Amino acid sequence: CELKIPVSVTSIGSNAFYNCSNLTGNLIIPEKVTSIGSYAFCYCSGFNGILKIPSGVTSIGDSTFDGCSGLTGSLVIPEGVTSIGSNAFNRCGGLTGDLIIPEGVTSIGREAFSGCSGFTGSLVISEGVTSIEYGTFRSCSGLTGCLEIPEGVTSIGSNAFYKCSGFTE
Predict the structure, then answer these.
(1) Which of 46, 74, 107, 169 has its CA 20 to 30 A from that of 29?
(2) Which is more confidently placed, 63 or 98?
């Protein structure tokens, strides 16, 4: 069945929909939501549509969308997000288009985008990011275009770009 979150919802707690694998369709998070807890949609592998994260969200917790492999279309991370937790989008292989880390993001956790092999565009990492953790973009093999690491990055973890084979520069 399709998950329809009421527009009145302002926060989604940790583990709220953890392992709800029979959900289908799009994952539309209402515009009033400003907080999404860790593991909120972890292992919800039945989705087969787009993921829409509202502009009021400021952080994406650990494993929030981990294992949501059926999501399709572009991943738009809102401008207000400042941190992306470990494994936040791990194994979300159906997402396509560019992967853009917006200007306000300063922290990206371990393996945040690991296994997201469906992206077909550029990887853009904002200037605010200071470290790229272990396996952050591991197996993001569909990305094309340039890979530019911002000047402010002071450390790059092991396997950070392991199996990222599509870049042209």
Answers:
(1) 107
(2) 63
Sign of torsion over alpha carbons 66, 70, 71, 74: positive
- What secondary structure letter does DSSP report for 24? B
Write the DSSP symbol of residue 138: T
Q: Whole-model pTM above 0.90?
A: yes
31 closest CA partner among 5, 13, 49: 5
User: What would the pLDDT profile of 133-166 be if each residue is shown by its tens digit?
Assistant: 999 999 998 888 788 899 999 999 999 999 988 8
Q: What is the DSSP string of 37-65?
A: -TTTTTT-TT--S-EE--TT--EE-TTTT
Q: What is each CA distance from 132 to 49, 129, 157, in whole angstroms? A: 29, 8, 6
Name residue 108's beta-bridge partners: 84
Q: What is the pLDDT of residues 18-45, one digit of tens each?
A: 999 888 999 999 999 999 999 999 999 8
What pLDDT does 61 receive? Answer: 94
Cα separation, 166 vs 140, whole angstroms: 8
**Per the structure block, which two tokens stand in for 121?**
């565009």
Question: 């909120």: which residue's tokens?
Answer: 40
DSSP class per residue in 91-117 = T-TTEES-EEE-TT--EE-TTTTTT-T
